[in-house]
Amino acid sequence: VEISSLGDKDILVLRLDLTDRSSHEAATNSVLKHFGKIDVLVNNGGRSQRSLFVDTNLDVYNAIIELNYLGTISLTKHVLNHMIQRRKGKIVTVSSVMGIMGAPLATGYCASKHALQGFFNSLRTELTDYPEISIINICPGPVQSQIIQNVFTENLAKSLESSGDQSHKMPTARCVRLTLVSTVNDLKEAWISDHPYLAVCYLWQYAPTWAWWLMNRMGKRRIQNFKSGV
């Protein structure tokens, strides 16, 4: 058994609300005061969605963008200022395969992940004078987590009635390991998924006409299952 050499001074836990953007500078400064530097920022906060657009209140879309997109880039801004001073660091953002493709019942979630992809791919081009600052986008497919239990639905007050079976999804530990491998190797983008979702990513990237045809067929069945409560 490997014994960790970490002590109390090596660990700092801060409560953070991504939607409270006014608190992000102070949180960043607290970390810097404790450790003296920030080597890696992992943006891993967000909520998914499970609802049809025609049934969904626009307040839900506002909340998704506030949390998944604006909250993430707000925290990134404060940490990046420090990394630019050091001329070194890694910013890892957990996007999603939904940032690459479109899918039914997740229009707002897909939009927020597309926004993150566009933002960080553009930010990378602004940091060419800082070759040791890496911008890394992680795009997982279905992973075992509590994300389903906490999804947005048709309105902000409603929670999902059934989260369904998660046994077919990638184990959390495997996704974490592949994320760490991607981070260590400074991959600009990593798709972390099992098939058939990974195959659909390739279709969406290289044969979009086939991807649209397939998603229309898959989407119709997924919507039927959703309406049936499956």
Automatic annotation (TrEMBL):
It comes from Ceyx cyanopectus (Indigo-banded kingfisher). PANTHER family: DEHYDROGENASE/REDUCTASE SDR FAMILY MEMBER 7-RELATED, DEHYDROGENASE_REDUCTASE SDR FAMILY MEMBER 7. This is DHRS7 reductase. Keywords: Oxidoreductase. GO terms for molecular function: oxidoreductase activity. It comes from the Eukaryota. Belongs to the short-chain dehydrogenases/reductases (SDR) family. InterPro entries: NAD(P)-bd_dom_sf (IPR036291), Sc_DH/Rdtase_CS (IPR020904), SDR_fam (IPR002347), SDR_family_member_7 (IPR053011). Pfam families: adh_short.
